[in-house]
Amino acid sequence: MGLVRILLPLPRAAARLAPEKGGPLLGAALSYCVTPSWAGLWSPSPARRLALAEEAVAVYRATADADGLSRALALRAHALLLSGRCEEACAAADDATAVPGAQASPVLTAFVGDVRAQALAGLDRTEEAVAEAHACVEAYRGLSVPDRRDRTLGSLPGALRTYGMLLAAVGRAEESVAVYEECVALLAAMSLRELAHVELVRPRVLAELVGVLRALGRHRDALGVGPEAREALRGPIAWAVPEIVLPLRVGLLVDLARCHSATGEPAEARACAVEAVAEARRQHSAGELAPALDCLADVFGELGQTEKELNTRRELAELREAY
C-alpha cells in the first residue's frame, strides 16, 4: 500500500497523457491506497485518506467503469466515517449502491451496510443503526469466500463487532454478549492468513466484551476474558495504531479493576487501576485519565489508604476543572 502511494505520480501522468487507459489505472491505484488495511499499517491519515478517495471518485466519474465508481464511492463513505463526517458518510453509502449500470459485489454491498450502520450510530440514530447492522451481519453470513480484491472490504467478524457494540448501546446487553462471543469464537477458528485482514477486530471485541459483562454484573466472566483481552492489546498492533489500542487498554484496565473490586480482590484492583492511570498519562488524554483516576481513588478508599485517595480525588477535580 505504501509503495503504491509512492508511485502514484506514474498513474497520474498516465491518466493525463492517455485518459482512456490511464484513468482506470489511476482509479484502481487510488482505491487501493484507501482500502482498509489489516491494522492501519502505513495507512494515510483520515484527511489524506479522504482526499485520495475523493480523487478516485472524480477519476472514475470520467470513465465508463460503473463498478469502479461504486467501489470508490464506498471507500469515500468509509473515509468520511473515519473523519467523523457521519451524515455525509450515510449519503455517500447510499450513492455507492445506486450507481447506474454498476454490479456491486455482495461483499461491497455488505461493507457499505457496515459503514452506514456506524454512521447512523454517530448521528444518534441508534435504533436504525441496529437494524442496519443486523442486516449487514446476515448479508455477510450468506457470502461465499470473497475474492482477493474484496477480502479487505469488511468481514463477518467486523460486522458482528459493530452489531454487538450497537446492541450494547441500546441496552440489549445479553444479546450483545452473545454476538461478541460468536465473534470471538469465529476469530479463534481463523487461520493466521485470515486473521491478517481482521486483526484489529479482535482487541476491540475482547475489550468491549469485558465491558458489557461488567455492566451485566458478570464480574467473574469478565475477569475470565481479561487475560486474552490484555494479550490482544499488546505487540505490533499497539504501535501500529496506538490511537485505537491505547484508549482500549485504559478502558479494559478500568473495567478489570472494577471487577476485581466487585469480587473482593482490592490488591488486584489496585494493580489494574495503577496501570490504567499510567497508560492514560502516556496518552496525555483527559478523556481516559479521568475515569482511570476515579477508579484508582475508589480502590484506595477500599484499601483504607485515605491520604492517597484524597490526593487522587484532588488531581481528578483539577483535571475536570481544566477541561
Structural features, described:
The protein is mainly alpha-helical and 323 residues long. It is 77% helix and 0% strand. The chain is built from 18 helices and no strands. The protein has helices spanning 2-6, 9-17, 19-34, 46-61, 66-82, 86-96, 106-122, 126-141, 156-169, 173-188, 192-195, 201-215, 219-232, 236-240, 242-262, 266-283, 286-302, 306-322. Helix 4 packs antiparallel against helix 5, helix 7 (106-122) packs parallel to helix 9 and helix 17 (286-302) runs antiparallel to helix 18 (306-322). The radius of gyration is 22 Å and the shape is elongated. The two termini are 39 Å apart.
Mean pLDDT across the residues is 87
Number of strands: 0
Number of helices: 18
Terminal Cα separation, in Å? 39 Å
- Biggest β-sheet description: none
What is the helix/strand order? HHHHHHHHHHHHHHHHHH
Q: Structural class of the helix and strand makeup?
A: mainly alpha
Which helices and strands occur, and which strands form pairs?
Blueprint: H1 2-6, H2 9-17, H3 19-34, H4 46-61, H5 66-82, H6 86-96, H7 106-122, H8 126-141, H9 156-169, H10 173-188, H11 192-195, H12 201-215, H13 219-232, H14 236-240, H15 242-262, H16 266-283, H17 286-302, H18 306-322
Descriptive key words:
323 residues; mainly alpha; 18 helices; elongated
Brief description of this entry?
With about 325 residues, the protein is mostly helical. The protein has helices at about 1-5, 10-15, 20-35, 45-60, 65-80, 85-95, 105-120, 125-140, 155-170, 175-190, 190-195, 200-215, 220-230, 235-240, 240-260, 265-285, 285-300, 305-320.
